[in-house]
Amino acid sequence: MNLKIDRALKTPVYIQIRSQLKEQILSGRLSDGYALPSERTLAKDLGVHRNTVVRAYNELKADGLLSSYQGVGYRVACRQETGRNGQRKKAVNWQGLIKKEYRELQSAFEDYVSKPQTESRVSFAAGMAAGEVYSAKEIADCLARIISAGDRPSYFYTPYQGDPALRQEIAGFMRTKGILANPGQIQIFSENNQALDFLVTILLSPGDKVFTEESNSPDVYRAIELAGGKVIPIPMDEEGMICENLGSLIETHKPRFIYVNSSYHNPTGIGMSMERKKRLLELSYQYRVPLIEEDEASELFFEGERIPSLKSMDPGENVIYMYSFSLTMVPGVGLSFLIAPREIIKSLSNLVSVRLVTLEWMPQHLACQFLKEGTYVRKLEDFRRIYKEKRDRMCRCLQEISGSVPLSFRKPRGGVYLWVRLPSAVDVSRLRKEAEKQGVSFLTGELFFPDQNPRGNYIRLNYSYASERQIEKGMGILKECMQKIQKESDLFDKPL
After folding, report:
1. Is the same domain home to 299 and 429?
2. Residue 421 and residue 408 in contact, taking contact as beta carbons nearer than 8 Å
């Protein structure tokens, strides 16, 4: 790049710079993507004020000849996007090429779930395993044993269906839960969202209807809708999905399948009763409607014993079973699996081969080793104890808040979620914003309904990852925010 400034000319200096750069770009002497000097550097080289260079660069940007990005600086724009006169041609309409359902797709959780927990930030949004159960040394030692064993290729691509040794160990673990499955009926995934996405891809056609509980994870709704399906919400009570009129609803809508979160339901924390599970199975066989059961929290029971899963009660193969280690293993190490008839597994593994090529080896080998050594089962006791303590701590905090803010909640018998109903005077959207300013995040109730229209003024609190000290801190901040909003609402509603 060679620029010359003629101060004898009446032409302003910035126009001289712009004109010379424009000619060099259009002639091809400055190639596509060429990095120009910074404003300060070029100003120093030419002996002019920085603002002169800024003005020249900005006008070239307006002509479509330059582009700039923070941290990258100014570069020559691609000539394919510009005409001979330097005016920008109409680029490819990328927005128009995106399918409508994906063009309008937005994160249901924004970035609240992914924000890290720190000393100054408390997350009641993210559903991750407690970090205090597995020590860093335990994890490092386990990985070292895997790598040094040499009995299988730790770094090689795993089979599309998942590591055979892991599937063997999972089959053994499932027997302790009353589920008889062989490794050929098991498909490994990174987490339940991925499993569901793949499953609805092979099962749903546009217009197909799916029954779910009236509240559920927004990820469930998204997966179904993106596959072209339509969610039909079924009311719930304290025993789970209401089955009283379910037969007539099945006859009317003819759902492709029924999706249930049977153990300590997300977001309500409700565990489906045995009677409801029996009735669901009866209806499944009567109307030949498959059941998809998400059973992620089944091992996290605090009182009594584990409630049997739908799958363990299924006399045939009407139930597809989904389980995840996300709440009971190492935080951030996602791993889940699905148990289904072989026809389904075959199609799923073929889809994995097309979309993923392989599955991550490290989470699979880690889970396999922990299951093989019995570590996973032993650690479940620790998770149950820790989560129960955290649940009790959060419930005590909520009970204290209820003295000034008339909220209500049901104490869950297991799992990691508290579903809290707030008085109408406390705007949950404003509460989320106020709490976020002070470093506390949670999820508002409307996210968990397919039409974003909650049947009450709810928030969902997750107590799995935060420490007890952080729970105390975060709940204290929520209390202050609730009281402030309620007070202002009361003042506003008072007659003048």
Report:
1. no
2. yes
98 part of a folded domain: no
Together in a domain, 124 and 144? no
Is residue 306 within 8 A of residue 263, CB to CB? The reply is: no
Counting the structural domains of the chain, the total is 3
Q: What CATH number is attached to the domain comprising 470?
A: 3.90.1150.10
Question: What are the distances in angstroms from CA 184 to CA 168, 188, 201?
Answer: 9, 11, 21
Domain annotation covers residue 95: no
d(Cα 221, Cα 23) in Å, to the nearest integer?
54
Domain containing residue 208: CATH number: 3.40.640.10
What is the extent of the structural domain holding 385? 103-129+381-493
Evaluate whether residue 298 is within a structural domain.
yes
Question: Under the phi-then-psi rule, with left for phi > 0, alpha for psi from -120 to 50, and beta for the rest, what region is 105?
Answer: beta
Closest CA to 62 of 82, 43, 35: 82
| Claim to verify: residue 123 and residue 147 sit in the same structural domain | no
Query: Could you identify the residue written with the tokens 């003048």?
Result: 496
What does residue 289 show for φ and ψ, rounded to 5 degrees? -110, 125
* Structural domain ending residue among the three candidates 321, 344, 377: 377
Same domain (yes/no): 470, 429: yes
Tens digit of pLDDT per residue, the chain (496 long)?
A: 789 999 888 889 999 999 999 988 888 888 888 889 999 899 998 999 999 999 999 999 888 889 887 767 888 986 554 455 545 555 577 667 777 777 666 665 655 555 656 667 899 987 788 889 999 999 999 988 888 876 555 556 788 999 999 999 999 999 999 999 999 999 999 988 999 999 999 999 999 999 999 999 999 999 999 999 999 999 999 999 999 999 999 999 999 999 999 999 999 999 999 999 999 999 999 999 999 999 999 999 998 888 899 999 999 999 999 999 999 998 877 799 999 999 999 999 999 999 987 788 889 989 999 999 999 999 999 999 999 999 999 999 999 999 999 999 999 999 999 999 999 999 999 999 999 999 999 999 998 998 777 778 999 999 999 999 999 999 999 999 999 999 888 765 554 4
Does residue 96 lie in a domain region? no
